[in-house]
Amino acid sequence: MNESRWTIAQALMRGRTQIEAAVPDTPLLDAQLLLMHVLGCDRTTLFTWPEHMLTPVQADSYFALVARRIDGHPVAHLTGLREFWSLPLAVNPSTLIPRPDTEVLVAQALEKVERPDATVLELGTGTGAIALALQSEQPNWEITAVDYVEDAVALARQNAQSLGFSQVNILQSDWFSAIPRNHRFHLIVSNPPYLASDDVHLKQGDVRFEPHSALVAEDSGLADLIHIARESRDFLTEGGWLMLEHGAEQGSELREVLQKLGYVQIYTALDYANLERVTCARFAES
Ligand SMILES: C[S@@+](CC[C@H](N)C(=O)[O-])C[C@H]1O[C@@H](n2cnc3c(N)ncnc32)[C@H](O)[C@@H]1O
Questions:
Q1: Matching CATH topology for 8-72 and 92-282?
Q2: For S-adenosyl-L-methionine, which residues are the binding ones (predicted)?
Q3: What CATH number has the domain spanning 8-72?
């Protein structure tokens, strides 16, 4: 029980200091997001009313979340929310917390696919981030999104519903297994698991709290990328685009694989840190 009274400014200062000692990346932002969640307010309110007193219940809830953040829990799991492409998405431990770098894939898709009536398939949709971002920009695209994990499918459907994109067709599927063999897509996108099982990142930060089903693939992380590249040829229209997010070191190997599989116009887009992140290619019937 927290007996003392806190203003917004004092609570932020204390939360920031406590978080900084354990998780030094973005302590002030973390404290702000946790307090906004408890108060049900936006960031402007925090800046406008720094002298506003928290109730004891609000202070207790906030400092309980700060304590869990100090234990390493991702802020997005504590608030249940992460913004992607300006869309507020519900998140939970069943899948990946959407990353800003994945917006590079969305931007490439919107730039390269000009048809207003494109058919689109997203493989491994998780929260639905990519599919819903695309639908928000292209309301007439016919988008199907799949995930293998039942709870992720439920989460993506919940996000589609709450954001008003219930026309997105969200299915449980082991990659292409639930997609009829005669369906063809102008665009296939995926951010599949691509970490090797011994990748050091698995033991760091938020990643420790995310499921291996969303992160790890065999063959040094390349197995799912290669499987999707191979199978997509049976589901793309002539000239259709395949766009794959991958690890910063996997670009050259993936480009080589795509070339051997007969894809053309292969290139890799860089992420916000100037690292190779999204490889794109067009299917050409041989
Ligand atoms: C890296 S996460 C990407 C989630 C989301 N698209 C994003 O970018 O934030 C990979 C997703 O692929 C899903 N996945 C893993 N294996 C799969 C499979 N065999 N078939 C379909 N989805 C799969 C995972 O459950 C997870 O949601």
A1: no
A2: 124-128, 147, 175, 191
A3: 1.10.8.10
pLDDT at 4: 72
In the three-class reduction of DSSP (H, G, I as helix; E, B as strand; rest coil), residue 81 is classed as strand
Beta carbon of 148 within 6 Å of any ligand 1 atom? yes
Place of tokens 């992720």: 152
Ligand 1 atom nearest to 105, measured from its CA: 8
The owner of tokens 């951010």 is: 191
Domain ranges of the chain: 8-72, 92-282
Residue 266 CA to ligand 1 centre (angstroms): 23
Atom of ligand 1 nearest to the CA of 190: 6
Nearest-10 crossing angle of helices 56-70, 27-39:
140
As a whole number, mean pLDDT of residues 104-109 equals 98
| CA atoms of 29 and 111, how far apart (whole Å) | 32
CA 89 to centroid of ligand 1, rounded, Å: 16
> 92-282 maps to which CATH number?
3.40.50.150
The residues that bridge with 170 in the sheet, in sequence order, are: 145
